[in-house]
Design brief:
This protein is an alpha+beta fold. It has a single domain, classed as Chalcone isomerase (3-Layer(bba) Sandwich), CATH 3.50.70.10. The protein has five helices and ten strands. It has a seven-stranded antiparallel β-sheet. Strands 1-2-3 form a three-stranded antiparallel β-sheet, with no helix packed on it. A hairpin with a 2-residue loop joins strand 9 and strand 10. Helix 2 runs antiparallel to helix 3 and helix 2 packs across helix 4. The N terminus is likely disordered.
């Protein structure tokens, strides 16, 4: 996958769970992109579960992504109502409207037509807030139970979309049964 700081992920998760003070200078690197070992989400911290690169046509890198979950969260619970964060750093410029266009077929594959129809207003609201990005920009999707899913760009919040149902459907783009890329899903869940 990449290189980690000197603290193994399982040990870091145990330290966070125990409430130990941590040195946040440790980072994880994949494809030249560094991700923090932990990030805040609401009133708690999430720990890095895994990271990987989305590739197009095998050789072209689209973005590096990292998944953060509460310490000790099993892989099977990643789409449940637990706090979570996906962070993406892009290697190419992408116009804002392309994000919604790319997400739509994957949402339908994983959530189904009926669920997508019931989420339509919220999906459209999120899509409206996507902005044009350039190489090195970072989007993050952060779900906090009771608050919703926040979309941020380079650390600036753009919108929060309410609902556990929305979060489960939208995070399924990367973590669902038929994700955007199966290898990326495995890397995000720390399975490789």
């Amino acid at each position: 996958m990449g290189t980690k700081g000197s603290v193994p992920a399982f040990l870091l998760a145990a330290l966070v769970a125990a409430g130990a003070p941590l040195d946040t200078s440790f980072a994880y690197e994949v494809g030249g992109v560094r991700f923090s070992e932990r990030v805040p989400a609401g009133d708690s911290d999430l720990v890095l579960t895994g990271a990987g690169i989305l590739r197009y046509k095998v050789v072209f890198r689209g973005y590096a992504a990292a998944l953060y979950l509460p310490p000790g969260t099993p892989e099977a619970a990643a789409l449940s109502g637990v706090a979570k964060r996906l962070e993406f750093e892009y290697f190419w410029s992408i116009p804002g409207p392309e994000f919604g266009k790319a997400a739509e077929p994957i949402l339908r594959r994983n959530a189904g037509e009926r669920a997508v129809a019931s989420l339509r207003e919220r999906i459209d609201r999120l899509n409206h807030h996507y902005r044009d990005i350039k190489p090195g920009d970072r989007y993050a999707l952060t779900f906090v139970p009771g608050r919703g899913t926040e979309l941020s760009l380079n650390g600036t919040p753009l919108v929060t979309i309410e609902g556990d149902d929305f979060a489960a459907a939208y995070f399924a783009i990367w973590l669902g049964p038929d994700p955007i890329d199966r290898d990326l899903k495995k890397h995000l869940l720390g399975a490789v």
